[in-house]
UniProtKB/TrEMBL annotation:
Species assigned in the record: Irena cyanogastra
GO annotation, cellular component aspect: cytoplasm
Protein name, entry field: Leucine-rich repeat-containing protein 14B
Keyword Disulfide bond: no
InterPro entries per the UniProt record, alphabetical: LRR_dom_sf (IPR032675), LRRC14/PRAME (IPR050694)
Amino acid sequence: RTTMKSLRFISAEAFVSNAEFARKSLGAVAHDLFPLLFKASYLLEQGEVIHDLVKNWPLFDFNMGKLLGATLDCKEDLSCRTCSVCLESCLTGLRDYVLNQSSPYMKKLKVVDLTGIKDVEVQLCKCKKTMGRWARTELLSKLCSELLVYLQQAQCNPGTFEISINVLIDLFVTERNYELVVQALLKKCSCPLKICCVAFRSDNLTLQKFFYVIKLTDSSLLRKLEIVHNVHLEMEHLEMLFNSIHFPLLMSLTLPARTFNVRRFTATDEQMLTNIGEKMGEMTQLTELSMSFSILTGIIQKLLSPLKTPLKMLDVSNCSLNHADMAFLANSFHANHLEALDLSGHDILELYPSTFLKLLSHCSSVLRSLTLEDCNIQDTHANMLILGLSPCQKLQEFKFIGNPLSSQALKHLFTFLRELPMLKNVEFPVPRDCYPIGITYPIDDASVCRFDHQKYERVAEELNLILLQANREDVKASTPLFGSYDAAVQETNNELGAYLINSFKETLEKFTTSFNKMS
């Protein structure tokens, strides 16, 4: 793939392509050329050159997103290349920057920003080996601890202890890297590299460990908090979290499944819910909220009405919403600002058609992403869906897998979808007529792959042809049977799989013990 490059950038590529020569010559390079050489080295995966550039970095800041993003010299955005060779060289170079006593430049570096790196499914780097968010968290924590040990043991220049660099990072903590992260955060004050957590994701962690590590981060800097999957956080723990920690800059909050369950509500829970709503209302920056797989029947208004800032992203998939919840969403001030909405798992077009259409009309001027998976959308609903989507001219992504639509209805929908000017990604279901007669929806995991694959391929080709006939090669249409790609889950799936097997084993052992006692 050819990309526009300036003569300066082509010269920079030529310079760094000979690693030995480039490393020897860095002392004679002008300060303002370092960013150019860094991007050229990253593109060519010249790990040793990257290491030495960072080790001798002459500027006040080092911002990965800006350095790798599109520039006048090279239009290609490399921020989604999480190349293991490049990132490891970069982080070890940062450690060696602190230890470097022969640098020809005065040490000016104050801020390193690693938050601009994006984890994506398809990697274009030659080595094909990635370093995801979890691995970056582990390596930086390890390097901080090693650096402290070295500084305590070695005879270092007294100036080394005066170095203070804030390293902004999106932390991802699980059971497997917990101890390393905790050690790095505990010693933050005495380490020249100071981990500053801007986004925090925790998975496969006990509540005790989650609360301990989140209190070690500086919550005043935190913009995004994701508590997912195997962190058993319930409503009383959430109230405890909000009462004990203040999140003034929090913009995005993701809660794990079953945080809320109205079916078990008592009078105490009602008050707790009010408190949680009020605490979220104090988060004046909060614009993204994900509460999937909780049971929120009838309490959406109580949770969302205290918010003073309109939400731009809302995920209430599989939350058992009722008509009152849908009516509140459609009429609330949030509706006019929603750029991303996930209502999966709700029979919206059958049970609340007019309310759903009203909600879509209110957010149509800004809506970019809509997810309606497993919503029992049938052929009879196709025209209504088209009516609702027609004003959504800014829609970039539409996901509706798991719905019982026929091949014919899908072709009808695609003929409409190709007219949406901003559309880039469509995730469509396997047509109902590709499955055996009598299949019931939602389809269970055991049956989801039991369809006529040849017929599906023919239909998928026809749907893509509908797009091509309208010159919409820019639209990607696919059927991810087990959900969209999630970089974080992909990176830690071995650990999570082992956790689930262990949980199942423990449950089985408890059952066997109880059964034996009964016998």
